[in-house]
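During the reporting period the student researcher (J.K.) took over the structure-prediction task from the postdoctoral fellow and processed the backlog of single-chain submissions. One of the processed entries is reproduced below for the supervisory committee.
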Amino acid sequence: MHHIKANFKAFISYFFILLFCYAAISKIMDFEKFQIQMKDSPLLTPFSEFLPLFIIVIELFLVGLLCYQKTQNIGFLGSFILMLIFTVYIGIMLVTSENLPCSCGGILEKMSWTQHLYFNIGCTILIAFALVLNKKYNRPVDKDRNHS
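J.K. obtained the following structure tokens:
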């Protein structure tokens, strides 16, 4: 059973490595469009000068963390926080805005905002599950229990 859970945790890690690489590269490939879309967002306009580059750097940084066993847990935590922020942002935009510019890039840009919200909720739940698995299987073993 431990082997299955370890494989599932690895799958989640690979999934987010691919997702964040794809998202970052899509944004880099059409960086000007990404910047314009960020400026068009009513919630992000005040941050539109630094946020586009910041998001790309964070996504690539998380990829690096997820690539190594030693940093994977912090990568999972950072991915969870980022996905939670993205999900809350989409939820707020759906409720408050009529103008919904998508700055995701690539195939994710083809999703409707509602589909994107569901996708992000699923990803947030998936990464939360990885955090639980990582915490459960990386606990130090109690020495007293082993010597009984």
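The committee noted the following: The chain has six helices and no strands.
J.K. will present the remaining backlog at the next meeting.
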